[in-house]
Amino acid sequence: MTARLLPFLDDSIKPAPPTLVTITVDGIPTSGVAGQSLAGVILAGGTLGFRRTSALGRPRGVFCGIGVCFDCLVEVNGLRDVRACQRRASEGDVVTLQHDGLPSGDAT
Amino acid sequence: MNGDLLNDVLVIGAGPAGLAAARAARERGASVTLLDSSDQLGGQFWRHLPDARPSGAERILHHGWDTFRSLRDALESDSGCRVIGSAQVWAIETSPQGPGTVHVMVGQPDGVGREKLVFAPGALIIATGAHDRVLPFPGWDLPGVFSGGAAQALAKGERLAVGRRVIVAGAGPFLLPVAASLSGAGAKVLGVFEANRAPALLRGWLPRPWQLLPVAGKSVELAGYVAGHLRHRIPYRLGRMVVAAHGTDHLEAVTLSSVTADWSPISGTERTVEVDAVCVSHGFTPRLELAIAAGCALTPDRFVRVDDRQHTSVRGVYAVGEITCIGGADLAMAEGLIAGHIAAGGLITDDPLRRAVRRRRTFQGFARRIEAAHGIRAGWPKMLNDDTIVCRCEEVSFGTLRATAESSGSRSLRALKLSTRAGLGICQGRVCGRSVEELLATVAGDSGLIDGVTTDRRPIAAPIRLGELAADPKSLQRPSEPMKGMK
User: Taking the model in full, what pTM does it have?
Assistant: First the structure.
């Protein structure tokens, strides 16, 4: 666990009590706060590597955080290639991490 | 002037520059449509918590928060301004008569079935801002290595700290608010490492110090960060860079090295520090693709060329904010105000612009100082080794890039991009483009690249799905019908 959401009671900006939102990440229920991005919820749930690259199979996760780099692509509710940093988490979102190999000769 | 045409202003981007432009155009009575790809106003500078998370004291996270609130409230309550959020401009078709047509998708980012809109505005104001430039270094593709902007967006927009033990590194004054945000969100910031050394900073900041007097607000802003750092005991070190990130599946440590004035690492000075996140920013890259799509000419140093009215080389098209000069929010707002006023039919000599014109001059001077003090220096490629990924999307290593360029002997960037694949991935060269250009120019030798091509041109400004491309657009949009897409 590395990334962490600041508990609202500790926050100097005096937030109202947050509403929880729960998604699943590769089938594992993961909770965040309403209004968070999928990237934020997944990160705070302890997952840093969101996908593996096609050629070298290297892990990638959130990098630019503002929709520029496309490193945080995930599948959301069956739709592939969604930038997790650009999409707010909705209750019940089903996130599947994408690990795409390069197309091979025997693929159908 | 053609009053009818000029009465209809489209603003792309709702950061400080775009908000100021929209407001100024409204004050002169133009009908305004303001587009932003986010579902919030404010851009990256005023990135804030969503409505779902109201907070009593959010203003302490921001500079100029009251300015933002008053701009936002004025525009959102104004029936003559149509604010459309979650709006992705994906193409602009040029026209000899004026700004051309602007193609927009409205709906969830990267979603399906978004609403397709087309605008043919009388005047177009482009305020698309900038994103961090992060130079490649060994391990920079590991999860746990973030841009400074990512750390900032997650801290201000979600109250999330990207790590527990964090180092902030790179160059420029932006490192300070990144560290402050991380610290405020609960991270332990082990240090802020500025690559430039004291002489460069002094050369940039000290000549004619009296010129800084008019930007006292900026100095107060910086002094506030320094005070914050002292309070949180965050060391600020000069002449050091993160030259490598280590880990298998995620970041575990970074190597810091002292660097020379041209950012060449000094061997023997390396020190490895265990961290779970590193936030890196070496400067900013203007988001030029829409201005280029609109036909705007660029300056030799790759910003949108504007005259004193913020008018570009294309009739009826204005550019404001970081795409004309990396100068910060105050300069962006002055430029926005000028462009909005003139796009709505006003003149540069009009009284309401006097203060903005003066402020623009002052803050441009500030921007030159930042560049002189903190700009990227030529020795940075010495951080790379043959295995270092340069193009993250296509996974092109420095060794492959150099070997392919050397064996082809080509001096054409277009040809080299095709043969190396660097910059051809899904981010369309946004992250690595300028670094790839600089590396290839080094390989090409003294005369550099010769075809005058840059990595900034992107015919489709944002990836869209084929099904959406095929759908029929709604007819031309007029600003009269209210439609507030913001939440």
Answer: 0.93
